[in-house]
Amino acid sequence: MFVLVVGGGRVGYYLTRELIQSGHEVVLMEKDRARATQIADEIGSIVIPHDGCEGKYLAEAGANRADVVAAVTGDDEDNLVICQMAKHHFDVPKTIARVNNPANEALFEHLGVDDQISPTRMILASIEQEIPVRELLHLAALGGEGDLELIEAQIDDRSPAIGRAAQDLGVPNGCSLFAVIRGGVATPVGSDTVLRQGDKVLAIGRRECEAELREQLIGAEIGAPGL
Amino acid sequence: MKVVIVGCGRVGALLAATFAAAGHNVSIIDTSTTAFERLPSSFRGDAIRGNGTDEAVLRRAGAQDCDLFLALTEGDNRNVMSAQLAAEVFGARKSVAKLNDPVRAEAYAELGIATICRTSLMADAILAFAGLAGSGAPVIRVPSGGHDDAAQLHDALLPEPGAGAGSTTRGR
Asked: B2-157: which CATH topology?
């Protein structure tokens, strides 16, 4: 595969190295000349010392024949533009953006970036799994047209769902509970599964149903700041 | 009309003052408060400190009610992102991004936001002054469907159906 990596920071540098090791054809674009030279000295002459947002240099880097463009600079607006230029001007099949501000994820997806990686969101999710939070945890975005999320809810002593069967919970349309983790064991949720305090419930749901689902499983009161 | 301007540089400040003096409702956004010193003391609009690519800041500036949105910062990509936020999230009727890169200016006009390219604008003016023909590029490139056709804008920005893994959008 031919991969065009834009941004020669830590992420871009290690990404390029790993891709080369796995036998892919890679070109790295880094606009800071000193940094570009430094990387080229180490991994060879596959570094283009120019701004990957500029159409002229994207063309020189071979964007029109790239299978994947990965925009991994530290600036969200740059990553957005790189992906959009790649997608719409150079017809690149797959574009990946690093998204630093989690608030930008929805916009990027809406604007046609194929894949988004948010280090901030990942670290946040990891922290959330360690500390009890009275919020829904976002385990994964399933992407695609449906806008589905994989969600986990912790049933604590204030949950209105305690002692109620799944079918009686009034789970919003567009959501479904599919597993409950009790004492470390995951079992599928049936319509007659009764929820208990301490359960972890796994659900799949549309983003817009989240507030309602949260109310059903965790309760209305907001116990911790949301995302 | 409601005008939101991002970037209180010389052009932004001049336009803000001109629109406000003509009786329009103007909000101007800049990351630095000192930039607002470029506004005349008679300026009667809102000056908002913040990042123009931040949805919350745009909302505070009233982007949701805006008729004309102008992204005029020094950064091409910031302008492109602001202008798309205004058009896509807030439904601004006209959204213009200032760009320095002519290739990006052309590409984004195809993608549904109006662009003005300072580079071709100045080059054409100077060439004309020198008696040579310019590039012939329009001063402001307007998306082909016009600004009001939100559906078309939407289509242009979203990948084609089935353009996921394994297929491509080549040959569009």
From this structure: Rossmann fold (3.40.50)
Which of B57, B58, B77 to mutate: most A Cβ within 10 Å? Answer: B77
Number of Cα atoms under 13 Å in the Cβ half of residue A169: 33
pLDDT in tens, B149-159: 443 433 433 33
Q: Please write the tens of the pLDDT for every residue from B10-31.
A: 999 999 999 999 999 999 999 9
What integer is the mean pLDDT of A184-199? 89
CATH code for the part of the protein at A2-117: 3.40.50.720
Q: Which CATH architecture has domain A132-217?
A: 2-Layer Sandwich (3.30)
Q: Is A103 on the interface with B (CB under 8 A)?
A: yes
Instruction: Pick the residue of B54, B80, B120, B144 with the most A CBs within 10 A to test the interface with A by mutation.
Output: B80
Q: How far apart are CA A93 and CA A138, in angstroms?
A: 28
ipTM of the complex: 0.73
Residue among B78, B103, B169 minimizing CB distance to A91: B169
Listed in sequence order, the residues at least 6 apart from A185 whose beta carbon sits closer than 8 Å to its beta carbon are none
Confidence band, pLDDT 50/70/90 cuts, at residue A103:
confident
- β-strand pairing of B2-6 with B114-117: unpaired
